[in-house]
Give the backbone structure.
Amino acid sequence: MSIHDFLKGKKILVFGLGVQGGGVGDALWLQKHNYDLRGTDQNNHSIPELNSIPLTLGRHEPADIDWADLIIKNPGVPDDHPLIEYARKSGKAVYSSIALFVKYCPIKTIGITGTRGKSTTTAITTEVLNAAYPNQIVTGGNIPGTSSFQLFDQLEGKKYVVLELSSFQLHSFHDLKVSPNYSIFTNLYPDHLNRYPSMAEYQHDKDAIWMYQKEDDICVKSADPAIVAEWDTPLPGIHNKENISNLWALVSHLNVSESLTREVVSKFIGIPFRQEKIRQVNGVTYINDTTATTPVAAAKALQAQTSPTILICGGATKNLPLDVFLEEIKTNQHLKQIILLGSHSIPEFTSPLSSFASSKIAGQVESMAEAVALAHSLAKPGEVVLLSPGFASFDLFQNEFDRGRQFNNCVNQLK
């Protein structure tokens, strides 16, 4: 059965159009293929490209649920949303577009998840496979601006689809009992405990990346970084050695040569917002690691530094353990000073920090412009200014990408 066979004759509601483009892209694809369609979103923002589609904006309405045969739920919408509960009690089918894509994709899928490293691993896996199979690789999933349904129109003549998959996306894989043909599970650390009641539920969703694989499918889990300990890579830190070892364990199953993999790895400099070197100003290096939204991720970024470092950190809580990050701050020999960005709602972090590292706290600021200006005034040639927050961004920013873009803009204005 194809995706069109499955969707044929259904009235489809896209529930949650989102801010990253995925829901809007799904709606546009459904419109392009002439499906009976409606969309709804909690935000009351204008969406000109969807003007010809019936939309309910600023709210969700039971009438839209009553109308639909199939609800395409944005992964950001939790299962306990009252109207999602109402839909299921009413016997409506509720799926995500990414789960439907993996179920009905006519070519092999490669899924990559993990608390940390999934974006970098997805990017470098795509680079290696593109080198091995030119113009035959499609990438999507948990990437801003990517629509799962729109991927269906990109598959002609392709060999693999590489998908970065978040726990929220994988959650709906349980409904369809589907997993990618090949997968990498990079690691598991506490995350999203503001949405999940415990680590067990969080891990259960992550485990969907392998739970429903067939007999000949493959999942790589936490490969040994010693396998590639001597590989030449510009990426910093042991965590990137782990990412590369996972990559190698997978592509070796896909008949990609070690020499080609080594060549690509040696040239891969990383992706935006993941320990990304933005520029050097008066001998000071500015690094953007805004996607370090967990304490463990910020600790690993700090561990990777080899020069005196001014750390910009803080934000909004996700109810995650702080001990690893606090211990790294306490013991890191390269950490020179700390700038707290916002962080008024996380006394569980700022209070212990003040007790053992008060001499290193340079200030608490309320905007990225203030943070970068303060760091600029403190940093000396040969030092590093590292934005690695360790927390969510929602106290001061739209999301972590907004936070990262503001950092880049401020750094690029320095003289």
